[in-house]
Amino acid sequence: MKALKNLIDNIKPTFSKGGKLSFLHSTFDAFETFLYVPEYLTKKGVHVRDSIDLKRTMTIVIIALLPALLFGMYNTGYQYNLSVGGSMDFMQMFWYGFLRVLPLVIVSYVVGLGIEFAAAQIRGHEVNEGFLVSGMLIPLIMPVDVPLWILALSVAFAVIVGKEVFGGTGMNIWNPALLSRAFVFFAYPSQISGDKIWISGLSSGQGVVDGFSGATPLANAAAGSPVPSFMDMFTGFIPGSIGETSTIAILIGAALLIFTGIASWKIMVSTFAGGLLTGLLLNVLATDPSSYMAMPAWNHLVMGGFAFGAVFMATDPVTGSQTETGKWIYGFLIGMMAILIRVFNAGYPEGMMLAILLMNTFAPLIDHIIVQSNIKRRLKRAVIK
Amino acid sequence: MSNKIRLRKGLNIPLKGSAETHIAKNISPNIIAVKPTDFKGLNPKLLVKEGDLVKAGTPVIADKKRPEILICSPISGTVKEVVRGEKRKLLEILIESDKKHEYQQIVTPNFRKATQKELKETLLAGGMWPMIKQRPYGIIPSPSVEPKAIFISGFDTSPLAPDLDFTLKAEFEHMQVGVEVLSKLTCGGVHLSLNADNFAGSPLHRLEKVSLHVFDGPHPAGNVGVQIHHISPINKGDVVWTMDLYTLAAIGRLFSKGVFDLRKIIAITGPRAKKPCYIETLPGMPMSDIMEFVELTPEKKSGELLPVRFISGNVLTGDNIGENGSLGIFHNQITLVSEGKYREMFGWSKPFRAKKFSFSHSYFSWLTPSKKYSLDTNLNGGERAFVMTGVYEKVLPMDIYPMYLLKAILAEDIDKMEALGIYEIIEEDFALCEFVCPSKTEIQEIVSKGIDLMIKEMS
Is the dihedral of CA B418, B155, B153, B278 positive or negative? Predict the structure, then answer.
C-alpha cells in the first residue's frame, strides 16, 4: 500500500500544473481520488465536515441498482430459454444473461466516462461522479438486443447534449439516462419497438417455440391483448427492458435509497400515488370492460418502466423538483402523465419515459411557484412588537 | 414557561472534548492582540503608534467614517507592534502588558436616570459599541439608528460550546444592569432566549425587564438569528441589535464600575485538548499561553502524523488562527482538532468507517447516537456542483429556501436575495448546511459575499 502511495506521489508532478502531462490532470485526479479519499483540508468556514461526499452518494445508488441489474441478467436468460423452449438451469440462464448484459454496461461506461473525462479536462474541473449512476441506468432501460453502436450513440448524445452543454453534472435539465433512451426511441424507432427486441436473439430470428410472441405487457395492453398476471409482473418474469421488469428488485433498491435518504421518498410515494389514482379514475370512467382504460390500476404500477422510473429516474435530484412541497406535486404529475400517455397515446406504449422528461422540464416551474409563495408568505408575516 | 418554541431541524455534531466545569487556570496574558478584522463593517483608523502607553479602555482604533466608534485596548501596557498585511491592511495591534491592570476610568451616568443620548455616548466612549452586532448583516450598528428590538441568546448550542450558566455565574448583577441600559435604547424591548432543557436551572430567568423566550431543539436553536426568525422576523428596513451574554455583562460592568473590562471565562475544547476545561482570560490572548492544555503528540491516521489546528471559536464558525494566533474578541471557546491531511484508501467506499461521523444514513453513525467522534479537518471528499437537494433544509429551522438563496447570491440578484431572506441570516446560521453539504460547497463564504454585496448596493 505504501508503494502505491509513493508511486502516486512520484508521478503526481507530471500531471500537475507545469508537468509534461498536465493536460491529463483531471483524469489523474479522478483516479487518485478513486483510490484514496483525498487529503484536502477545510479552509474557510466550517472546520470539520460530514463524511458523506458525492462518491459515497453515487455508490449507494449503484448498490441500490444491483438487485435490478442481477435480476435483469437472470431474466434475460430466462426469457431466452422460454423463447427457444430450452431447458437451461438457473446458473445457465444467469450466465447467458450476464454475457448479454455485460457488453451493454461496458459500452455505456466506456463511452460516457470517456466523454466525462474529456469534458472535465477541457473545463479544468474534477471529474464528477454523476455518470457512475447514469452509466448503469442506461443499459438497464434498454432492450437487451439493442445494437451496441446505437447504445454508444445514445450515451454520447445524452452526455454531450443532455449534460455537458449545460455545464456538466448538477446543471442539466433532463435526466441523461432517459434522454439516451428517448434518443434511441425517436432516432431508431424500429430498434426499440415491436415484439422482437425485448428478448435476446429474437430479432435475429433464432428458433422460437410456437405461440411465443415476445411482446411486453405494455404492448399487449395497448393492443388490447391480455397482460400477464399481477404476480408475474411484480416478480418480473416478463419481457421488457433489462432492469425494469422486476418490481420486487426495484423495491429492494428503493428501500435502500429511502433508508439512506439518498433519494426522496416523497417523489417515490407521490409518483406511485399519482399513477394509482389516475388508473383508478380511468377504471371508473371506462365504459368497455375489455378496454385499456378498464385494466386494473395496480397493474400499471408493475408494468413497463413505471416502478423503475419512479424509484431511480424521477428521484434524480438535479432534474427533479428541488423544493420539498414541489416534490409531491412533481411526483404526482409524473405518475398521472405516465398513465395518461400509456392509455391514450397508442404511439408511445411506455409513458413513463416521456412523463419524466416532461416533468423534468416543468420542475423549475413548480419550484418557482413554491418559492414565490414562500416569498409572499414572508412578506405578509406579522411582526410581533 | 410561556411561548416555548420547539425546533426539530438541526444537528448537534457529536464532537469529542467537551470542557469539564472547572476553571483550570487564570491567565493574565503578557501580550494581547487587538484585531480589527474581528469586527465586520469596520473601516479601521489607527489611533496609537508603537511605543505608546495605553490603559485598559484606551481607544486604539476608530472607524474612519464614524469616528465616534472606538475599539479599546483590553489591557494596560505598551503598544509593541502594529502588524499590517497586504496593501498595508491593518491586521492586529500587539499590546504588551505592564502587569498593573490599570483601567481608564470612564465617566458613566446613572443608567436609571440617564437619557438615551447619554447612554449611547457612554457605550461609544467605553468601547462597548462595536461589541454590539446589528442585523441585518451582523455588522457594527450605526449610532444614529434606533433598533426595532434587541435580541440576546441565553445559551449556546454550537459544538462543544461553553456552558454559559457556568461561565457567567458571577455576572448576574452586571447582566441585570446591562439589560436595564439596553432596554432604554429601544422601544421594542430586550428579548432573551433560554434553553428549554435548563430553563429553571439557569439564573437568567430571574432577569428583570426582559421578554423571555424558550427554545427547544438541537443546534442552531441557540443561534440568535434563528431565534429572531421565530420571535419577530427581520423584514426589509428593520434593524435589530444582537449580542452575546458576555457583552451584556461587560456593558453592565461599564455602567456599574466605569471600566472597560473584558475578562471572561472561556472553554478549551476539542479532540486535541488535554483535559478540556475552562480558563479565565482576556480576548486577544495568544495561543502560547494555553500550550499546556494542547495535546501536542501528533495523532496518527493512515500513516500520517497530524498536527493540531487552533480554532478561535467553535468548529462551525471559528477562525483558524494557527499556533501563533490569538483569541478573537467574540469567541468564548478555543477548539483544538487534528489537521486531516491524510489519504484514506477507498475511504468513500468502505461500508463501515467507525471513526467517521455522518448526518446522513449512508454511514452507520446514526446507530450510535451517544458516541462522540474525534473529527478532523479533512474535507472528506472533493468540491462539486450542487447535486443533492433537501439536505440543507434538514438542518435549517427557518422558513427559508437555502439553496435558492445561495443561488441568488451566486447570481448576484439583489431583488431575489432580498425576497429570499438575506436580511435574516448571517454566516453562522448557514454553518450547519455547510457541514452536511455532500458537494463540499463553502456556503458561509457565499453568504458572506452576499452580505458584502448587499452592504455595497444598499448604502
Answer: negative
In the prediction, which pLDDT does A381 show?
76
Q: Which of A245, A308, A39 is nearest to B378 (CA)?
A: A39
Please give the Cα distance from B135 to B225 (Å, whole number): 8
CA A354 to chain centre: 13
Which three cell numbers, joined as nine digits, stand for A340?
Answer: 395518461
Residues 361-420 of chain B with CB under 8 A from chain A are 361-363, 365, 375-390, 393, 399-401, 403-404, 419-420
Which grid coordinates are listed for A369?
411557484
Long-range contact pairs involving A89-94 (C-beta distance under 8 Å, separation at least 24): none
Cα B380 from chain centroid (whole Å): 25
Yes or no: say if A239 and A302 are a contact pair by the CB < 8 Å rule.
Answer: no
Does residue A17 register a pLDDT over 80?
no
Q: CA of A93 to nearest chain B CA: how many angstroms apart? A: 31
Q: How far is CA B79 from CA A280, B33, B34, B53, B58, in A?
A: 82, 10, 10, 6, 11
Q: How far is CA A205 from CA A104, A145, A199, B297, in A?
A: 21, 12, 11, 73
**B205 exposed, middle or buried (CB, 10 Å; 0-12, 13-18, 19+)?**
middle
Using the CB atoms, write b or e for A115-136: b if 16+ within 10 Å: bbbbbbbeeebbbbbbbbbbbb
Question: Which H or E run contains B193?
Answer: strand B190-195
Q: What are A253-273's pLDDT values in tens digits?
A: 999 999 998 999 999 999 999
Contact criterion met (CB below 8 Å) for B148 and B186: yes
Work out the mean pLDDT of chain B and round it to a whole number: 92
Question: How far is B66 from B70, CA to CA, in rounded Å?
Answer: 9
Closest residue to B385, CB basis, from A46, A169, A378: A169
- Helix axis angle, A130-140 to A54-84, nearest 10°: 10
Can you give the pLDDT at residue B1? Answer: 47
Contact A135, A115 (CB under 8 A): no
Q: B324 at the A interface (CB within 8 A)?
A: no
| Grid cell in block for residue B171 | 455576572
pLDDT in tens, A88-127: 889 999 999 999 999 999 999 999 999 988 888 888 777 8
Beta carbons of B338 and B307 less than 8 angstroms apart: yes
Beta carbons of A226 and B326 less than 8 angstroms apart: no
| Cβ pair B220, B226 in contact under 8 A | yes
Closest among A249, A248, A266, A270 to A258, alpha carbons compared: A266
Q: By the 8 A CB rule, do A317 and B388 touch? A: yes
Residue B97 has pLDDT above 90, yes or no: yes
Residue A61 with chain B: CB contacts under 8 Å: none
Q: How many CB atoms lie within 10 A of CB B49?
A: 9
Cell digits of residue B160 = 462543544
Which of B231, B353, B375, B378 to mutate to probe the A interface, most A CBs <10 Å? Answer: B378
Helix, strand, coil % over all residues of chain B, rounded to 5: 30, 25, 50
Quick check: A196 pLDDT over 80?
no
What backbone phi and psi angles, to 5 degrees, belong to A232? -60, -40
Check: CB of residue B388 under 8 Å from CB of residue A50. Answer: no
Joined grid coordinates for residue A206: 433464432
Prior bond of B276 cis (ω within 30°): no
Q: What is the pTM of this model?
A: 0.91
pLDDT above 50: residue B123: yes
Q: Which residue has the cell 455565574?
A: B169
> What distance lies between CA B4 and its chain's CA centroid?
24
Torsions phi, psi for B234 (to 5 deg): -85, 120
